Amino acid sequence: MKQVNESTNHIERMRIDKWLWAARFFKTRSLAKTAIEGGKVHHLSDRVKVSKEVYIGLELTIQQGSDKKTVIIQGLSNQRGPAPTAQLLYEETAVSIARRELLASQRKLDNLAKPDHRPNKKDRRQIHKFKQSHDEQWTYP
């Protein structure tokens, strides 16, 4: 288990938007508030409100872009500190890490399947010819 800064231990509860900001999930509290209101933060598969109070041991699911992280709160802090300190405020679950790594590898493989270049005029003619020849087979009377 990670060690949390002693100055953060006296807090028992705080607002979720402030915690997300302090844990560096969002750059500003207003961005955290917008994400919460947009349904990007869940607790036990339920959307949370901006005023929800979080406490140590609470499990949250946070979606940022295509990444979805499941974290357990390990500490609370009123101040936004450096990134190494902010990472002590939560612990990502092993299932969440594995899922994110799997999705990242799938995105990399999807990028490999793309063509190396845009089709030129000759390639486009061949594509149109191919499509027309196959569209005639599938036309219905």
From TrEMBL:
Gene Ontology terms for molecular function: DNA binding; ribosomal large subunit binding; single-stranded RNA binding
Statement: the UniProt record of this protein carries the keyword RNA-binding: yes
Basic and acidic residues bias (residue ranges): 108-118, 132-141
Annotated keywords: DNA-binding, RNA-binding, Stress response
Domain called RNA-binding S4: residue spans: 14-42
Disordered, as annotated region: 108-141
UniProt-listed GO biological process terms: cellular response to heat
InterPro entries for this protein: HSP15 (IPR025708), S4_RNA-bd (IPR002942), S4_RNA-bd_sf (IPR036986)
Keyword ATP-binding: no
Biased composition (Basic residues): 119-131
Family: Belongs to the HSP15 family.
Protein name as annotated: Heat shock protein 15
Species per Swiss-Prot/TrEMBL record: Acinetobacter boissieri
